[in-house]
Amino acid sequence: MELQTLVTLAVLIIAIGLFIWDRLGVDVIALLVLITLLAAGIITEGEALAGFSNKTVISIGALFIVGGAVFQTGLADVIANRILRVAGTNYTRLLVVLMVAVAIMSAFISSTGVVALLLPSIMSLAAKTRMAPSRLLIPLSVSALLGGASTLIGTPPNLLAAEKLRLGGYETFSFFSFTPISLAILLASVLFVATLGKRLLPDRQPVQKVQPVTTPTELFNLYRLPESLYRLRVDAQSPLIGKTLPESNLREQFELSVLSIIHANGKRSGAVAVGRRAEPLRPNTHIQAEDILIVQGNVDAVTQAAAYWRLAIMANEPVVEQDVITNEVGIAEVMLRPRSAALDKTLTDLNFGRTHRLTVLDIRRPGSEGALDLKNTPLRFGDMLLVQGQWKDIFELKQQQRRDYIVMGEPEAAEFGAFQRASRAPIVLIVLAIMIVTIMINPDLLTLASLSAAIAVVLTGCISMDEAYEAIDWKTLILIAGMLPLSTALVKVGLVDTIATSLRTALGGMGVYAVIAGLFVITAIFTQVLSNTVTTVLIVPIAIVAARDLGVAPQAFVMAVAIAASMAFGTPIASPVNTLVMSPGNYKFSDYARIGVPLILISMVITLTLLPLLFPL
After folding, report:
1. So what CATH class is 216-323?
2. Radius of gyration from C-alpha coordinates of the chain
3. Dihedral (CA of 531, 536, 537, 542) sign
4. What is the pLDDT of residues 558-606, one digit of tens each?
């Protein structure tokens, strides 16, 4: 065996070992593989960097942005809530509805994102019904993986498999080429889990129940805000008409904070009911007759301000939660850090409201039960500020002032609806539909369609550019781009031909489908300890060469590998979605194998049964 072949084989084995060891990031391992192969002269510089310009890598990056827009606009959240509303609390019905719905969502957006979105809702549902989360979370991850395997864009292995066929000069897969087999596997898997499989799921409560951060709704009641919030209607003869908020001196003279304004024409500035549009509460907003001011302060100050400015106190219409907590604005607790620059300073010293565009409604200090003066109290470590304002400003405080403040409750706020641009959800839906139809008509337009969709959701304000960068899973992109050169090296040094010949020699005498079965088994085993992306990169070239040596079309061989690569049910490290549910479900390593191995066997039988019908050799 030549030196370059030995080096490539060693790189492959060491890379697999490092992936299993799981001490280095998968992206770091991929880059180490690329650098080693380049330094050893096995691949050229162009071949080493080809992965970063690969159309599949670019397409996957664009699809991450589109998926991010689906989440940012609340479209995914709407779908998730409807799933849970339809499913109810009956265990078997919940399993069936959950698995089918999650699979449909995962066919078009990130399976990891779908699981992350539904996880808090599933945990909440389990708590309400006194059901162990372990009874639901593995089916959640299984259905997400099956859904991703059902379309061309559902998972990276499908895209990579199609790209390898195209580069080899063969007819590639269309958008729904994967659907018949994956749909059959999904239906069989749902039937299995809902009958025999649910008996294999552990009934195990989490080891430690983590006290969740207080939600915005709970904060509204905990701080007894209804007792300090009032509606003031501007009388037709009020001298306040035409003045701006700074000119009203409500804060300076009466220590009242204006949280929102309900204008006479029905529009709002500041808080807005869910699903309605609102303008920001700007300092230059002019107050008009019959406007209703939502203010916060003590009753004496409210009475004095009402008398001074001829305002009517609407005692019969108390302020409710929806007046100050919505998809666009809300409340949150902010805690001072030990070395915060705000320590020993008052809110007035900090000019907190104007600097951060947030209103401090209350200050809570450990060991102090009395109300603290919002203007003149020097802040101490451990003080908790209750702030109100637009969600983007609340979390801008977290991002830009992290050395000084800790913003509590981001997951709870996100679940409530923060960050969502509900009015743009229809735009995302239209963009997504156009992209899917385009790819269905012509799979060769995948890169153009996905890039166009990504820029469309940015230009239409469905997702900001910063959020788009955050939506991209850079680790996955670097993993794919870094491992593609290894596939090139395996072909160049002849290892792919050697492995394919060995497989054909060992199983060829038993028939073509015995070779396909062997490929399925090898892929399914590899994907339990490696990422499905790495497994696909390594095995698809072997499948194509094996088919070529047998003198048959390679589509059935490659399809078997792509399907098997998504059957990552057997271990918690086989897929990010498995890892994501492990801790909340308090799962053991063996829990995955107990239900995953039967599902893999079912998948193999269905795949080998349908392949001859869909891809005649």
Report:
1. alpha beta
2. 29
3. positive
4. 999 999 999 999 887 677 788 768 777 888 878 899 999 999 999 999 9
